[in-house]
Amino acid sequence: MNVKIPRLSLLCFILFLNIFTGFQDAIGQTATVRGFVYEKQSGEPVIFTNVYLYKTSYGAATDVNGYFVISQIPPGEYLLMVTYLGYDTLRIPLRLNANDIITKKFYLTQLSVLLNEVNISGTREQVRTETRTSVVTITPKQIDQIPSIGGQPDIAQYLQVLPGVIFTGDQGGQLYIRGGSPVQNLVLLDGMIIYNPFHSIGLFSVFDTEIIRSAEVYTGGFGAEYGGRISSVMDITTRDGNKTRIAGKAGASTFGGELMIEGPLKKQKEDNKGSSSFILSAKNSYLKQSSKIFYQYVDTAGLPFNYLDLYAKLSLNGSNGSKVNFYGFSFDDRVDNYKALSNFHWNSYGGGLNFVVIPGKSPALMEGNVDYSDYKISLDEIASPSRTSEINGFNVGLGFTYFLGKDVLKYGVELLGYQTLFNYFNSVNRKIEQNENTTELGVYVKYKTILGKFLLEPSFRIQWYASLANLSPEPRLAVKYNVADKFRVKLAGGFYSQNLISARSDRDVVNLFYAFLSGPDNLQENFKGRPVRQALQKAQHIILGIEWDIFKNTTLNVEGYYKNYSQLTDLNRNKIYDDNGDNQDKPYYLRKDFILEDGYADGLDISFKYERNRFYFWAVYSLSWVRLSDELISFYPPYDRRHNVNLVSSYKFGASNNWELDARWNLGSGFPFTKTQGFYEKLTFLDGINSDYTTANGELGIQYATFDGGRLPYYYRMDVSLLRRIQLSRYARMEITVSITNLFDRDNIFYVDRITGEQVYQLPLMPSGGIRFFF
After folding, report:
1. pLDDT score of 114
2. How far apart are CA 133 and CA 148, in angstroms?
């Protein structure tokens, strides 16, 4: 059984390869133009730009590698044009014969004089030709448009304003996306799995903004190319190093420092020959030390949030655009003696390679990756046993994309293996541990076609979980209907599964410990009156939305969603017995390490965006409900926020737009929490039947109210920043930033100590400043 099903999946993949060959034979009487678009100054690919044949309907947009394919072109003479905002338009005459496959490289030069308005927009063309349901594309330019804390723009700060994203706080903050917990979010860096992308101070991620090419954030309804998670996907692609010259940046602020250097090993030239480049990045926080100088009013002992992030990448580019990248990272996060309660530490490292291959005689693209990563986390508390967890493993992927005119066929295979190590004590001091090896295999196929005003994108994934002996077939679908040039209706949905679960304690005063475990198969036999046939976590998504370009520079996006979590696995809060033969007569919810839950998340996300010349404004409102239940209780999880509002604005001014003022306002309704009903003396009976309860000293016991039955006050925060750019030479510039976090000094609750009643708040009003030098 364990062998036959993976073989069936591999046979399906071989069938896809045969389809690939068949399509190649079917289009022999037409021509194909393909290639890459690069920025001439740096050699970096230009993404999402338009490449089309003038006065025809043949065209395409470049992908994240700058790659484009225009296929099934009738023989003839054409004028090929490449257009992108802020760059000179390229015009290249072409003569195409039957069976021609022409590969080109194009280099765009920045405009010497910027026009007030440019009508060509790659983004607007993309929304008409891509389904784009529940997905946001993020670039460094967009990240720069929100207030940068400490003068360091960071994707963690941008993600907090996305529709459907709930952020739990400045300290120890986590992102919850449309009802999904962090373990249900797949995070990829160049195809490599990242298990924890955010630092303990929630204002910063592990990623250097300057090395990001783009990030695709799918808040639900994602296609079959992604598997192993049931809520969302964040797919980050880093850029290559500068292929023409040595460049970089250096910066420092009241929060931390950063350094990045990049350059060519072999320069890229317009002679269709190969090139190679490198990029090195490092950023750290010294807030524990600097806060004793700048923020002593917050805590005289300092803010103990320190981290160090290192990243390196080597890119080798072939003459036809094929390339291979080698990369590695090391991320480290430490919180020392926070409020004299705990020491917290996690570190992660890994590396791998990915590649893009352009076949010589086929309008196709082959991509793949081989990666390994390791994540360790530990928490030491004065009043509780230590907790440790580790997950390490590899992921390998191979995918093919075949271009058939305006249609696209994509298919591939993924192999994943990891080990989980876990050591934990629950609230009654019962030990829960795990040492598990897991293998997963996924095979997928996706096809995009355009039928008149309809865009259809059906996809299908087969996911095999070897350790659980479970096979999960997962159909998915995305549809868009272009009602009019400025109005579109979209829909997406599908079936999703995952094996990984998280383990965190409800006793955590500061919720920093977020461990990863392999889903167990030793679960209860029945759940809510039905037999438990498999141990996987399962979810089904449905999203319906509209896009409306109300005016020339204004877009309204509305999406309603429903996520049905038909089966979830959670750490058992109620375990008091060991799960052995002596206790088989006890109820499962008193002896099992894990229990089953189900639930749902639904809501409405509305975003309004206006952008023109120097002014940018984005308004986001999210209305959501999340409800989970096991066989004993039904509850709102700690991240259930009913209302969430974000207003973001950016304004550039000055003779050369060298000043920039950014502001963000966030309002969120209160999170659920469990109230305290009273206290009592709890006798531990350490000597068993020999204990004398009349003389023994007990511990302080807490009588809790309904689980997560209370609500914290509203969260409110206003951030502003002012940036000044100074151009020092053709390539060198300096940026000086001053910013204020929590401008109105709002007391946002972080936690309340149940014993002492002490209230601890999120970050107060915190001015910061930073300077960055680019060369």
Report:
1. 46
2. 28
Q: DSSP labels for 267-306?
A: ---TTS--EEEEEEEEEEEEHHHHHHHH-TTT-TT---EE
Q: What is the pLDDT of residue 417?
A: 94
Q: Do 505 and 423 form a contact (C-beta atoms < 8 A)? A: no
Which CATH number belongs to the domain containing residue 81 in this structure? 2.60.40.1120
The pair of structure tokens assigned to 419 is 């080990």
Q: Mean pLDDT over residues 331-357, rounded?
A: 87
- Average pLDDT (511-540) is 84
Q: For tokens 């760059």, name the residue.
A: 87
pLDDT digits (tens, 9 = 90+) for 258-304: 999 999 999 988 766 889 999 999 999 998 888 888 888 887 777 88
Q: Do 512 and 575 have their domain in common?
A: yes
What are the tokens at 708?
């997560």
State the residue range of the domain holding 75: 4-123
Same domain? For 43 and 140 the reply is no
Residue 217 has pLDDT above 90, yes or no: yes
Q: Are residues 107 and 143 in the same domain?
A: no
Is residue 553 situated within a structural domain? yes
User: Hey, how many other C-beta atoms are within 10 angstroms of the C-beta on 360?
Assistant: 9
Count of domains observed in the chain: 2
Q: Are residues 115 and 148 in the same domain?
A: no
Show Cβ contacts of residue 580 under 8 Å, excluding neighbours closer than 6 positions. none
283 in Cβ contact with 257 (< 8 Å):
yes
Q: What is the largest CA-CA distance in the chain?
A: 100
Backbone angles phi, psi at 729, to 5 degrees: -160, -170
- CB of 366 closer than 8 Å to CB of 359: yes
Q: Work out the angle at residue 90's Cα, subtended by the Cα atoms of residues 88 and 95, and round it to the nearest 5 degrees.
A: 175
Amino acid 172: pLDDT: 66
Question: In this structure, what token pair is assigned to residue 162?
Answer: 């996305």
| Average confidence (pLDDT) over 395-417 | 94
Q: Are 122 and 54 in contact (CB under 8 A)?
A: no
Are 105 and 172 contained in the same domain? no
Please indicate, yes or no, if residue 130 is contained in any of the structural domains. Answer: no
Task: Give, in degrees to the nearest 5, the angle at Cα 700 between 696 and 701.
Answer: 110
pLDDT at res. 502? 81
Residue 163 placed within a domain? yes
- For residues 117 and 140, membership in a common domain is answered with no
Tokens of 310: 């290192």
Count CB-CB contacts under 10 A for residue 391.
25
How far is Cα of residue 220 from the mean position of the Cα atoms in its chain?
A: 12
Stretch 608-635: mean pLDDT: 93
Q: How confident is the model at residue 412 (pLDDT cuts 50, 70, 90)?
A: very high
Looking at per-residue pLDDT, the higher value among 362 and 254 belongs to 254
Task: Say if residue 387 is in the same domain as residue 240.
Answer: yes
More confident residue, 361 or 277: 277
Q: What CATH number is given to the structural domain containing 743?
A: 2.40.170.20
Global pTM?
0.88
Q: Residue 34 phi/psi, 5° resolution?
A: -140, 170
From residue 541, how far is each of 255, 284, 496, 497 by CA, in Å?
40, 38, 8, 11
> Does residue 387 form part of some domain?
yes
Closest CA to 37 of 12, 63, 5, 75: 63
Q: Which residue has the higher pLDDT, 692 or 537?
A: 537
Q: Are strands 364-381 and 387-404 parallel, antiparallel or unpaired?
A: antiparallel
Q: What angle do CA 211, 215, 220 make, to 5 degrees?
A: 160
pLDDT top residue among 624 and 360: 624
Q: Is the pLDDT reported for residue 743 higher than 60? A: yes
Q: Which of 90, 123, 156 is the last residue of a domain?
A: 123
Q: Are residues 75 and 217 in the same domain?
A: no
User: Taking Cα atoms as reference points, which of 697, 638, 672, 674 lies closest to residue 754?
Assistant: 674
Chain centroid, CA 697 distance in Å: 50
25-65 residue pLDDT tens: 444 588 899 999 999 888 889 988 889 999 898 888 898 88
Strand pairing of 31-39 and 101-108?
parallel
Q: Which of 93, 123, 153 is the last residue of a domain?
A: 123
